[in-house]
Amino acid sequence: MASRSRRSERRQEPLSRERIVEAAVALLDSVGERGLTFRALAERLSTGPGAIYWHITGKAELLTAATDAVVAAAVTADPAGTADPADSPQDAIRGVALGLFDATEAHPWLAAQLATQLSRSPWGTVAPRIFESLGRQVRAMGVPEADWFTASSALMHYILGAAGQNAANSASAGPSGRGDVDRDEFLDTVSTAWEGLDPEEYPFTRAVADQVRGHDDREQFLSGITLVLAGITALHRPGR
């Protein structure tokens, strides 16, 4: 009876675009893009596909809306729980970067959708949302206006590229990835393979091979952000 009552209450909730997008994100997380159909979405929402079409015109719009909802939450998140209005622009950028990094790992479908949105429809909501969250902080760093686009683009491309690669690595090395390999075992395999490379052809790769073992992905990601920010600051410091 309790289960039937909850379903009845769910059906009585007004169907809205927000509810549809929330359900779409949950479906994408569980079954991926191929499993996101209007029939599956209608079943999850206890409604008919026709009712959904009143709010969403098709799957492309649904994917865009789901991506934008996750990105919106990510760029306003505070992963470390330390956000402070007095934080520096650099700290604010790190917060945005970590929000996107964590979101990309939590939602396996997000990296591919971000790449699609940024390459095929940069005039949509997703690209401007990310660009705005980074660009405001770049401006606050004192970067000259003529260099705002370049500096913000460098940050965005590093963040999305590194976060997407990390998500792909997690998928390959994690429980659901190819070969069902443990992460530490996966990294050890990489390190061992690099250590066995020709020392004359790959001296540098062999030298850093051991650093691959047991490294922390988040720390490495943040170190990369620090490098990019240091470069922006050095190029645009006052008087240069």
Main β-sheet description: none
Distance between the termini: 73 Å
Structural class: mainly alpha
The total count of strands amounts to 0
Shape: globular
- Low-confidence residue ranges: 5-11
Describe the structure.
It is built from twelve helices and no strands. By secondary structure, it is mostly helical. Helix 2 (17-35) packs across helix 3, helix 2 crosses helix 5 and helix 5 packs across helix 6. The chain is globular, with a radius of gyration of 22 Å. It starts with a helix and ends in a 5-residue tail after the last helix. Residues 5-11 have low confidence and may be disordered.
Furnish the topology, listing elements before pairings.
Layout: H1 2-12, H2 17-35, H3 38-45, H4 49-53, H5 59-75, H6 89-106, H7 110-120, H8 126-140, H9 148-173, H10 183-195, H11 203-212, H12 217-235
Helix pairs in contact: 2-3, 2-5, 5-6, 5-7, 5-8, 6-8, 6-9, 6-12, 7-9, 8-9, 9-12, 10-11
Relevant terms:
single chain, 240 residues, mainly alpha, 12 helices
Question: What can be said about this structure in brief?
Answer:
The protein is mainly alpha-helical and 240 residues long.
